[in-house]
Design a protein that fits this description.
Number of strands: 3
Strand content: under 5%
Largest sheet: 3 strands, antiparallel
Helix content: 55-70%
Distance between the termini: 54 Å
Oligomer: single chain
Strand order of the largest sheet: 1-2-3
Structural class: mainly alpha
């Protein structure tokens, strides 16, 4: 995010210093012309990998990821060639004979617009795959849904939309840097909004997530203290009906029931599929299959069902007359009021208050 904000600052620097007369005064004019300020081909990859880093704090750049930065690197090389030819070889304006800042060339602006649009779609897709599979691995998902990410994507879309409006208006009117003050103002406001939004919603993911953008059936998850070889595939498709299990899977199901009913592992608000699989000495992918087929539920629903049943048993003991419902819910493994109310309604078809009025008058 810091890199994105830095690139954004560079983006409107030429416009700001232009009002200070830099384009009309040497050596500032050449400095603006020969120094690339608008790294349009870098903004897209930065936003995309920022999204990935949120969902996977252990993300590290590898060779395949570096390929995404090749267009930006090529533009830097192109900028260096311009400097070498004009300043060292020709000693005059060659590439820049037209007096046009290379950053504002139509081909470069269009290519940057397309690049950022593509990477924005990729980031959105990556987040959607995360949301589709999170209920399979986390027992409490509220803190890890990143509800502000859609607003982040929306702010980025607004940046592109405003830029598109400027481009269209440029076909009709003279959109010089004086007439586009409102565009850069809107751009700055969006950047402030993105910065405040991202830093005020900083949450470290409970598990590590990665996937292929074309994935339709499974994603890959690991514990935060893992190494690359410990990622396991987790299906995104949930079973809504129970299915017959093999003898091997039945043993795992029995062990799971023991952990739930005797050890009451569901009381741990940070319980994850990966952690539970380690306690059962099995693979998280296999355990996910047992839960999906053996119970006809995802991991989140199964754990929350046991939590709700425990809440009901505590209410049956009259504990709600001594404690608030929320404190009981927290003691039973929930970590947010919204999650508790939603899970209670899903299991009982009543809100907690309605359930007490109906069954414990």
């Amino acid at each position: 995010m810091s890199l994105f904000l830095f690139l954004s600052t560079l983006y409107f620097t030429p416009w700001m210093v232009g009002f200070a007369g830099w384009y009309d005064t040497q050596p500032y004019r050449d400095f603006l012309f020969y120094t690339p300020f608008q790294h349009l081909l870098l903004l897209g990859p930065v936003l995309f990998f920022y999204t990935q880093s949120l969902l996977n704090p252990a993300l590290k750049l590898n060779r395949s990821m570096l390929l995404h930065f090749i267009p930006a690197i090529l533009y830097l090389i192109f900028s260096a060639v311009i400097v070498i030819y004009d300043k060292i070889i020709l000693h005059d304006y060659g590439f820049l004979a037209s007096g046009q800042d290379p950053d504002f060339e139509t081909w470069y602006q269009l290519l940057g617009f397309i690049s950022m649009s593509i990477y924005l779609v990729m980031g959105f897709r990556y987040h959607q795959l995360y949301l589709k599979s999170i209920n399979q691995v986390l027992s409490n998902t509220t803190a890890y849904l990143y509800p502000w990410l859609p607003r982040f994507f929306f702010a980025c879309i607004m940046l592109l939309f405003i830029r598109g409006v400027v481009a269209v208006l440029g076909l009709i009117w003279d959109m010089n840097y004086i007439n586009t003050w409102w565009y850069f103002l809107c751009y700055a406001i969006c950047c402030y909004y993105i910065a405040i939004l991202s830093y005020s919603n900083a949450v470290e993911s409970k598990l590590l997530f990665r996937t292929n953008l074309l994935a339709t059936e499974e994603t890959y998850w690991a514990a935060t203290d893992t190494i690359d070889t410990e990622y396991v595939s987790i299906p995104m498709i949930e079973n809504t009906t129970t299915q017959e299990l093999s003898d091997e899977l039945l043993l795992i199901k029995d062990a799971l029931l023991s952990e739930l009913e005797q050890e009451q592992v569901f009381l741990n608000p940070e319980l994850t599929l990966v952690e539970l699989s380690k306690q059962l000495n099995t693979n998280a992918s296999i355990l996910s299959k047992v839960i999906n087929k053996g119970f006809g539920q995802n991991f989140n629903d199964l754990i929350n069902q046991y939590r709700i049943n425990f809440v009901i048993s505590e209410i049956g003991k009259g504990l709600h007359k001594k404690q608030t419902l929320l404190s009981i819910a927290f003691d039973c493994g929930f970590n947010s009021k919204a999650t508790f109310n939603r899970a209670f309604k899903k299991v009982t078809n009543f809100t907690p208050v309605e359930y007490i009025q109906e069954h414990f008058r």
